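Q: Can I see a sequence and its folded structure?
A: Here is a first one.
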Amino acid sequence: MASINKVILIGNLGRDPEVRYTPNGNAICNISVATTRNWKDKTSGDKVEETEWHRVVFYDRLAEIAGEYLKKGRPVYVEGRLKTRKWQDKDGKDVYTTEVIADQMQLLGGREGMGGDSDGGYDQGGGGRGESRAAPAARSAPPASRPAPTKPAPKSSTGFDDMDDDIPF
């Protein structure tokens, strides 16, 4: 049976990104993303808010881009996979942390406080540490002028007039 490990987050950065480099020059960027869930309590009727914090790690070129463009408080879209790491602290006790290893990132919100073009999306192929291909997302062309609306054709009584002839089966 196949399995899937995929995470999609839309939230706000809790702090500025931390970028560091491995001895062989690979970039690693850590961020913290807050997601908030709102609902109404059934018993009291009060609005309840729950914020969850997520550790996100970017590698290679995507890490450099995240470090350059992301700032505390900015909204961001992140796509990746979960990974749990284990290490021992100074007392020899096992410590675990679960992180999102990001392979795609999209800057959200306006351009305020940004130094350059900020509405691009970034994708790192290979699912994380592999190749470091980063490319802006495709942008839609400006809307072309539309022709004046015309009077719609009369509908037949069968209701089959708007069916597409290209049936996929």
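Q: Show me another, different protein.
A: A second, unrelated one:
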Amino acid sequence: MAYSATSPQELEYLHHFMGIALQEAEKALQDDEVPIAAVLVAGQEIIAQNHNQTAHHNSNLAHAEMLVLEQAGQKIGRWRIRETTLFVTLEPCCMCAGAMVLARIAKVVYALADAKSGACGSIFNVPQEPRLNHQISIIGGIRSEESKVLLQQFFACKRRKPKDRRIQYYW
């Protein structure tokens, strides 16, 4: 989903905050986490930013978007985070898209579409589901190549590491 900005100022705004999200995604890469990050913005102010921490927290809920929405709610003292824009380096999944709808954000801007689990237009379109009580504007394709490179670096590194072939059971 390529996006055509309505003005040079809008494109500059989108590129600026996606750049901050990409810098945050680089932190995830350094932490050996999947390099996905999110930045929540109100106007020109960053409310919260974070990157994936699923391995660090040993939790499948620790996606960048979920962490940012939780941080923002704590910071502003309410769970509805209206009139904000969430910048994400990879198209959000169903869980994160659902949380965005519940938080009532106004807009999601993502870099790279996710053909495997994208829920903002690629596979599902949760933010614009008409049966839900809130819809979110979606912009995709902002600085997608940079996000793609980070993800490729991460997975190339993972493929090079020797794998432990032993089966481990945890119960």
